[in-house]
Amino acid sequence: MSAFSGYDRVLRQGGLDRRGFGKLTAMLGAGAAIGGMLPGTARAQGEPKRGGTVAIGATGGATTDTLNPLLATASIHQLTSFMWGNCLVEYGTDGSAVPELAESWEPSPDAKTWRFNLRKGVTFHDGKELDAEDVIWTLNQSRGEDSQSGAAGIMTQVKDLRADGKHVVVVELEEGNADLPYLMTDYHLVIMQKDSDPASGIGTGGYRITEFDPGVRIFGERNENYFKTGRANLDSVEIVGIADPAARTAALQTGQIQIMERVDPKTVDLLGKMPGVVIHRAAGGGHYSMVMRCDTAPFDNNDFRLGLKYAANREDILDKILRGLGRVGNDQPIPVTDPFFAADLPQRTYDPDKAKFHMKKAGYGGEKIPFSTSDAPFAGAVDAAVLYQQHAAAAGINIDVIREPADGYWNDVWMKKPFCFTFWGGRPTADMMMSIAYHSKAAWNESYWFRPEFDKLLVQARAELDRPKRAQMYAELQRMIHDDGGELIPMFNDFVDASTAEVQNFELTPQLGLCGMRAPERVWLDA
Amino acid sequence: MPDLVRLIGKRLLFGLLTLFAVSVLVFIGTELLPGDLAEVILGQTATPEAVAAIRAKLNLGDPAVLRYWRWFSGVLVGDFGNSLASGRPITTVLLPRLQATLFLAATAAVIAVPLAIALGLLSALWRDRTFDKTTSAATLAAISMPEFFIGYLLVYVFAVQLGWFPAISRISPSANFGQKLWAIALPALTLTLVTTGHMMRMTRAAVVQVLSAPYIEMAELKGTPRRAIIFRHALPNAIGPIANVVVLNLAFLVVGVILVEVVFVYPGMGQLMVDAVSKRDIPLIQACAIVFAITYVGLNMLADIVSILANPRLRHPR
After folding, report:
1. Residue from the list A16, A65, A215 with its beta carbon closest to the beta carbon of B45
2. CB A32 within 8 A of CB A182
3. What was the ipTM of the complex prediction?
4. What number is the average pLDDT over the span A331-347?
């Protein structure tokens, strides 16, 4: 099986989660990201302080939850997994791949064979020492046709796993992939003990789980034998499932929790003005897209597509729909936080004259253009469509907003109607995002955009180990989508969390809220 | 007296029949979900193998009657099967939630029921005076507001501004009774405000109606003190309708508090059922539905029996 078909599966496993904006974090797919380039992400706040207890109000908890990391989707599961466990690789606040249980790794020149050197002397909560067999057993849980793991998709590219001595794991891939260390940061791939119960919650992490009440509360106490220095500084951490944003806010205001996930965009300004409350904003890779089917007239004409792209006032949509809590999109899916983001690509702006010019060239004569939308892709999609209708009207473009039923949107509208709204959770790497939605053979190539030269370059870039060369390739791929693709991407979302002022070292991490879901081990309290 | 026993026995029998009918409806309801049950559970992640595995696990190949019987016979002995999503036995998932819900409902009821009946009686007694009008306006205002809004108001005043009570009802397992009561103060108060109006107004109406009856006039003419008229003559005759409305509100306290649970992050039955529906956890949905049905049917039966006992005409049917 090729690495590529694996990406389809990742996406399909994200399928249910695509259906609601509320499950944004769940939609972040494999869960980690290449980040960086965000000024001020790492904020040194002096020496870590030991002690104290922190309660975190997080979303996505359900009575049906288990501790099994393979089944994790929502933020509360990710937070919990990173309390009791670690991955081979952690992704750093600057977007680099930081050694975690693997202290180093080296690829073969074709990026097909990777050697991960494990850290020595790391012990599980029950005292057993971590070795290569544990890692191999864990990774194998996500392999095979009947694996229920959320990482099963990305693991299909693994051909073979073997130990080389006690502390080296050799991963052999079907095809070269320079991003393998990043894929190992996936929260489904938290390392467990060989032959253990995946739902036992016993790992190498900074906190032992002492209480687990599914969907209600998770309580962990510091692991005194934790292998990282300066991490997991709190005596105990409690995670409380709070679905209602107003309840989370009230709990933070009254000191029942010290950290809250996902501030309501409508109240973020007010909350930020409260004494003793700090807002934390991390750039996300989730993006909103207006998809045109490039195989269907009139959208098969690139001038027509360009005309529609120039007719969108992105700032206006960002301000009104996300209350400014995001970034303007540039009609390509790679976020500014990605190291391979094409910064040189000129930002497309609202230009009714250019829009008119392209539409005229495409032979458009003012006919109604049906645009399907619904609040299924994200809350506010209908409002965003009406805003766009107004912007486009200034360029003489007649958008007919059609409100489709939210129920069945993903089956009956998306990838069926020629022009509709969609939402994508960010993906950990540029390669993965492009492979699931832009490669000609991708099952979810929603714009029906088939370009053999794009496919070829994408596969080349995946195995390229030379970084500057690779960056150039990704810049070219982004340019292709920007210039010719069928996606009008007006904006990217941010993750907005809040904490009380005594919470220190809230290290923003691109693409995920709550310090990359690792807040329990990163923060400390300043009494 | 045997008449009375027979009457109550008949009520019980009808109650059980209703429950049986509900169980059939619940079962059919989950059968009627569009599409194949296995595909519904798996959603878009459905692969043919996974669908086959679920079908086998749920015995979907068997005739519906057989499956119903298997499920129903389990329910009769308190075995609801295992949760599909977590694999845990449903009774272990359900019981703590049911306990939590009953605790909150009982606390709210202990405040709301005596309060509502007392206010209702006093309003009837001082009909059309300032007290009556004020109470009427206040309770009407309270029931006119959606319960989540009342919840937010209470949180704003008593948690955020005054800091007397917690904003979310987080109960740690080691909490003692007093701490538990403190934790659920605001949701209980919310529910009190939501239910008091209804019960109070019905009490007032029932008592007022009785007070206009000729025998009350007779008692007044005889010079019976007003207190005695209300408590000895009027109240016993008004118990039937009052019991009915009280029970209706008690049932609401158990099955209708999902919004309050969400606002106060209280882990009760409503939250459980919503989780179950969103995860397509069919056995858990069925179990919740049955528990809710038992609550409703049981409480209504209780109201019927109370009215029978309180009403001589029903007690001695001709």
Report:
1. A16
2. yes
3. 0.76
4. 93
3-state helix, strand, coil in chain B (%, to 5): 80, 0, 20
> Strand A277-292 vs strand A259-260: parallel, antiparallel, or unpaired?
unpaired
Region B110-124: what's the mean pLDDT?
92
Residues B54 and B128 in one domain: no
Q: What is the CATH number of the domain that holds B137?
A: 1.10.3720.10
Interface test with A, best of B41, B44, B190 (most A CBs within 10 A): B44
Residue that finishes a domain, picked among B267, B283, B306: B267
Q: Which helix (H) or strand (E) holds B285?
A: helix B282-310
Q: Tell which residue, A489, A480, A483, A478, has the closest CA to residue A314.
A: A489
Q: Which domain holds residue B56?
A: 2-76
Dump pLDDT digits (tens) for A463-489. Answer: 999 999 999 999 999 999 999 999 999
Q: How far, in Å, CA of A285 to CA of A33, rounded?
A: 9
User: Which tokens go with A325?
Assistant: 């809590």
The verdict on residue B285 lying in a domain is no
Residues of B (57-76) whose Cβ lies below 8 Å from A = none
* Cα B122–chain centre separation: 26
Cα(A384)–Cα(A318) distance, integer angstroms: 9
Pair (B63, B188) in one structural domain: no
- Distance CA(A146)–CA(A144), nearest Å, equals 6
Per-residue pLDDT reduced to its tens digit, B160-212: 889 899 888 888 778 888 888 999 999 999 999 989 988 999 999 988 888 88
Cβ proximity of B216 and B71 under 8 Å = no
Q: How far apart are CA A459 and CA A439, in angstroms?
A: 9
Residues found in chain B? 318
Residue A389, judged by CB atoms within 10 A of its CB (0-12, 13-18, 19+), counts as middle
Whether residue B301 lies inside any domain: the answer is no
Mutate to test the interface with A, among B90, B162, B170, B277 (most CBs of A within 10 A): B170
Sign of CA dihedral B298, B302, B305, B311: negative
Choose among A198, A200, A229, A252: nearest CA to A70.
A198
Q: Do the beta carbons of residue A282 and residue A42 sit within 8 Å?
A: no
